[in-house]
Write a structure and sequence with these properties.
Elements: E1 2-5, E2 21-23, E3 26-28, E4 41-42, E5 46-49, H1 52-63, H2 68-82, E6 92-98, E7 105-109, H3 146-157, H4 162-175, E8 177-178, H5 181-189, H6 191-194, H7 198-204, E9 220-221, H8 224-236, H9 239-242, H10 244-257, H11 263-267, E10 272-274, E11 277-281, E12 284-288, H12 295-308, H13 322-342, H14 353-356, H15 359-372, E13 406-411, E14 417-423, E15 433-434, E16 439-440, E17 481-486, E18 492-498, H16 505-518, H17 524-529, E19 533-534, E20 542-544, H18 551-559, E21 564-566, E22 575-580, E23 583-588, E24 595-598
Parallel strand pairs: 20-21
Antiparallel strand pairs: 1-24, 2-3, 4-23, 5-13, 5-24, 6-7, 6-14, 7-10, 8-9, 11-12, 12-17, 13-14, 15-16, 17-18, 18-22, 19-20, 22-23
Helix pairs in contact: 1-2, 2-3, 2-4, 4-8, 12-13, 12-15, 12-16, 13-18
The protein binds glycine.
Glycine binds next to loops.
Length: 601
């Protein structure tokens, strides 16, 4: 099997690009766009994920005759070992799977609030939100769903034996693997949080039992406790996690440390098969994540309003202009306003998808965007646009690379696809490793509304619909997506898997990638490398990646009244696959040391 690291394959091949010609003052553009960045390709499928090890584990499963579901299970377990910032056993996720290339199924294995959770559990007696309580430590943890989800995916679609799929992760945890700069940096960036818990310090910050700090680049990183837990899962399936000694350890440590999860919580956790949301766009069908994610519905709204405004027609193959970004931002504001108000776990709160995803709603938003013309729409219910000090070039910087949450894509070369996004919420979740198990625990409870109007760690203002209730799933932005097209014979085939990490920015990153893939028709490698921006209604500000957009673009946005902030870190980190001209092409985001791995036939 071959693995291609993103860093190796982001070289520009401008020489191969048909040159745009300037003739008699006219700009002639190529009718077909060849890739401006090389995407590793294969006729036999591939796996694209945030680490070379995990991609290789998945590709080897394909090589050994496994299907996309098998490869996804093995890749996810390998990510729990090799990308501990977000790959996980102690978190949750969403996936879209199509094993026959026709029907698309959704598996929601999102965490749920513990049975003892209450709506105001993160507020003090004065009704104020206690800083850090929903983000760091034992009380921040939701009941994990990942292991159950992977077991259920395997039960329904898997071909190879379960133990065969978990075994590579056991080996990576037990025997270790070489630390690269991505892993080292990610641990260093969360060192303060991890250092608060002795079980976490022991694994991530006590290299060789002598040296303090993250394991150095080039060292071998072993996680023997995690290997033991994975071994239980390999032997006993999801019971190896939700029953037995791991469950007992969870109940005891939670009780000792002020957490809420009990064995009863673990025993009754269920993943849920759901139907995807679907909509047509630019000659394709977009299949995406329904509630309890806000991602899929928001993605469809963004795309359909863009269509109303003619942005589904490629005017050029250039990057988006300042004027176009202005329009895209105006759409984002509307869609995120609705996200805040209406989305939640549908089992607990009805989500008015029919009206939000209706043509009239798309037309209304388009009308409002048109009416505002060249001027920025002020976010509703906000007193005034945020301080102009951020609206200058060289503005204050904030944010980090998107190491929270991770997305990977699998195509098995036989029509099977999986698009899977998984998370501990923020990087390394709550910072707590469950003692004796090596399992990092999530801080997904922060995705609930701790108090209406109070921003969560992503600055999202959330509503009553997303209030905490026992067994409820916190609202998510994760947007795993599959894209299909109709064939001349009337059948359809999946042609792309996309998704990204990045909290609420996920929605806009998947939106922009879908536009770049289907409208600009860029190669997957060019799509994932493209510069990104984000607006989430509140704060009323356009976030842009550093060094990503020209001065002209930023000036254009400022001129139109937008508040612009250049982030200190990147936005998203996508790992995508597209089927183009009969070949699977992979895009591993250069923002992380991810890789495309291809099975050898
Ligand atoms: N934890 C981030 C999300 O689910 O949106």
């Amino acid at each position: 099997m071959k693995a291609f690291a993103s860093s190796v394959f982001v070289c520009l091949v401008l020489g191969a690009l048909p040159l745009m010609a300037l003739a008699s003052g006219q700009l002639t553009q190529p009718s077909e766009v060849r890739p401006t960045r090389h995407s590793p390709s294969s006729p036999d499928g591939m796996v694209v994920s945030a680490t070379r090890h995990a991609s290789e584990v998945g590709a080897k499963v394909l090589q050994d005759g496994g299907n996309a579901a098998d490869a996804a299970v093995a890749t996810a377990f390998a990510l729990a070992v090799t990308w501990p910032a977000a790959g996980n056993l102690g978190g949750g996720g969403f996936l879209l799977a199509s094993l026959d290339g026709k029907s698309v199924e959704v598996l929601d294995h999102r965490e749920v609030a513990p049975l003892a959770a209450t709506a105001n559990m993160y507020q003090n007696s004065a009704g104020e939100v206690v800083p850090g309580l929903s983000t760091v430590g034992w009380k921040a943890v939701g009941v994990p769903g990942s292991v159950k989800g992977l077991a259920d995916l395997h039960k329904r679609f898997g071909k190879l034996p379960w133990a065969r799929l978990v075994e590579p992760a056991v080996r990576l945890a037990r025997d270790g693997f070489i630390v690269d700069s991505g892993l080292h940096r990610s641990i260093a960036a969360s060192a303060e949080k991890l250092s608060q818990f002795s079980s976490s310090r022991k694994i991530f910050l006590s290299f060789g039992n002598q040296r303090k700090g993250p394991p150095p680049v080039g060292s071998v990183f072993r996680q023997p406790d995690l290997a033991k837990t994975l071994q239980s899962i390999a032997q006993e399936g999801d019971k190896g996690f939700y029953r037995g000694w791991v469950a007992a350890a969870m109940e005891k440590s939670m009780a000792d440390s002020g957490g809420l999860i009990t064995r009863a919580d673990l025993k009754q956790y269920r993943s849920v098969w759901r139907k995807p949301l679907a909509a047509t766009f630019a000659g394709h069908t977009i299949h995406t994540m329904p509630p309890p994610s806000s991602g899929g519905g928001s993605l469809i709204a963004l795309l359909k309003v863009a269509e109303e405004l003619g942005l589904d027609q490629a005017k050029s193959h250039f990057r988006w202009s300042g004027a176009e970004i202005h329009t895209l931002v105006q759409i984002m504001k509307h869609v995120f306003r609705d996200r805040s108000e209406f989305y939640a776990d549908p089992q607990f709160h009805p989500v008015p998808l029919d009206s939000m995803l209706s043509s009239s709603s798309f037309q209304d938003i388009a009308k409002s965007v048109r009416k505002a013309g060249s001027q920025s729409l002020a976010a509703k219910n906000v007193e005034t646009v945020t301080s102009k000090k951020h609206a200058k070039r060289g503005a204050s910087q904030s944010g980090r690379a998107s190491e929270q949450t991770t997305h990977f894509s699998v195509a098995d070369g036989r029509g099977g696809w999986v698009s899977l996004t998984t998370t501990l919420n923020s990087s390394f979740g709550s910072g707590v490793v469950l003692p004796g198990t090596g399992v990092l625990l999530n801080n997904e409870m922060d995705d609930f509304t701790s108090k209406p109007g109070h921003p969560n760690l992503y600055g999202l203002i959330q509503g009553e619909a997303n209030a905490i209730q026992p067994k409820k799933r916190p609202l998510s932005s994760m947007t795993p997506t599959l894209i299909s097209r109709k064939l001349p014979n009337g059948k359809s085939e999946i042609v792309a898997a996309v998704g990204s990490p990045g909290g609420p920015t996920i929605i806009n990153q998947v939106f922009l990638m879908t536009l770049d893939l289907l409208v600009k028709k860029w190669s997957p490698a060019a799509v994932v490398a493209a510069p990104r921006f984000h607006h989430q209604w509140l704060p009323d500000r356009v976030f842009m990646e550093p060094a990503a957009f020209s001065q002209d673009v930023v000036e254009e946005l400022l001129k139109r009244g937008h508040d612009v902030q250049i982030r200190g870190g990147t936005l998203g980190a996508a790992h995508i696959i597209a089927l183009r001209n009969g070949l699977y092409e992979g895009g591993a985001d250069p923002r992380l040391p991810g890789a495309v791995a291809i099975p050898q036939k």
